[in-house]
Amino acid sequence: DAGVTQSPTHLIKTRGQQVTLRCSPISGHKSVSWYQQVLGQGPQFIFQYYEKEERGRGNFPDRFSARQFPNYSSELNVNALLLGDSALYLCASSLVWAGEGRNEQFFGPGTRLTVL
Amino acid sequence: QKEVEQDPGPLSVPEGAIVSLNCTYSNSAFQYFMWYRQYSRKGPELLMYTYSSGNKEDGRFTAQVDKSSKYISLFIRDSQPSDSATYLCAMMETGTASKLTFGTGTRLQVTL
Fold first, then answer.
1. Is A98 exposed, middle or buried (0-12, 13-18, 19+ CB in 10 A)?
2. Could you read off the pLDDT of B41-85 as tens digits, one per residue?
């Protein structure tokens, strides 16, 4: 079975531009979460979506937004890019959300975003 | 102070050694505890998932959770060069969102 897939693999943008990152969860998983991992740090939670609804939001500015589609895939959008947005963006999928029991999260390979 | 503290290493051990990796935390609401392995420029891979206190074993890996001390550990027996990676601890509260809070990761190098 395919794991979590993300596209693109790498992306280079300039300050002020906008970027869209895509994620497809494991088949049957209904929850998608997004994390930002800066070099040398652990991932930081950005959003969780379950059944197309936002279930959680981390401490990120409104320049960050996301959505989930009927097929449970998801997009993360970042507007007005800053140099500090350069990071590995990770998508994680889980079968359920926190309120329903075991909810192991499985990560994709990530999208490496470089902002120049 | 960070919610989750983890020594960044690097930790270098010879092949065959027992490795001990640790995290401490301050949020008493954490109920789920995980260990992930991350190879360079890859996504984190889930190794162990435990709920509340206690021990869990899976092959060469043993995870321990001591909620009274707010301390978790991962032991790797018979370490192999292929275990060389960054190990991330992660924790989660029960509630309305699956928000993982990670440590900074410990970089492990297993030498021949």
1. buried
2. 899 999 999 988 889 999 999 999 999 999 999 999 999 999 999
Question: Which residues of chain A lie closer than 8 angstroms to B45, CB-CB?
Answer: 107
Q: How far apart are CA B1 and CA B20, in angstroms?
A: 23
- Asked if A106 and A92 count as a contact pair (C-beta separation under 8 A), the reply is yes
Cβ within 8 Å of residue B71, ≥6 positions away: B22, B23, B24, B25
| Cα–Cα dist A3/A83, whole Å | 30
Whether the pLDDT of residue A36 is over 80: the answer is: yes
For residues B38 and B27, what is the distance between their CA atoms, to the nearest angstrom? Answer: 24
CB spacing of A98 vs B96 below 8 angstroms: yes
Å between A53 CA and nearest CA of chain B: 11
